[in-house]
Amino acid sequence: MTATRRLVLLRHGLTDWNAERRYQGQADVGLNETGVLQAKAAAVALVDYDVRLLWSSDLGRARSTAEELVAMTGLPPAYDARLREVHVGEISGLTHSEVLERFGPGPHDYGRHGGESEEQLGARVRAALEDAAAALGAGETGVVVSHGHALRTGLGAFLGWPAEVVATLGPLGNCGWIELVERATAPGGSVAWRLAAYNRVAPIS
To answer: What is the CATH number of the domain that holds 99?
Structure first.
């Protein structure tokens, strides 16, 4: 039997904009002090997974989160723009209350505000996850560092879930992670993936 591969999808640590409930989108906002501590704690927890592959969004908050795992593993990270957060267009920089006042309650179609639709987001993140999965050898674990909305939507697209099912998932916490493991659909048949864990978080001391 082929050894099981695993993908860990890790959200970046906390930023000041997260703390202020401000929409970031693709604005390149860095981690704050708490976010750095969260990234360090996640790296300590994930190093036990014997990680062999590390991919990351190229935005600063994701890169800084990935770099904590680099320090623990020595792995060379691959930075991929397809793993960036959803482009929120004119909503970028606004707080949740400001968006509610201007545009009404969500969920919002960012494509109508100069950004990306859910379909566009899902397609680009799914493509990156498929490439990361294909790069794993038998029994290997890979970590993909990205963003909350991108990971939730990309997860659904990767697993082939309908939008109504994806909408039932709660928000992914800062430095919370998702675990996906492969499964054989039939003896000697094709390989699919299943959700093994959602929103695991390593506590900071």
So the answer is: 3.40.50.1240
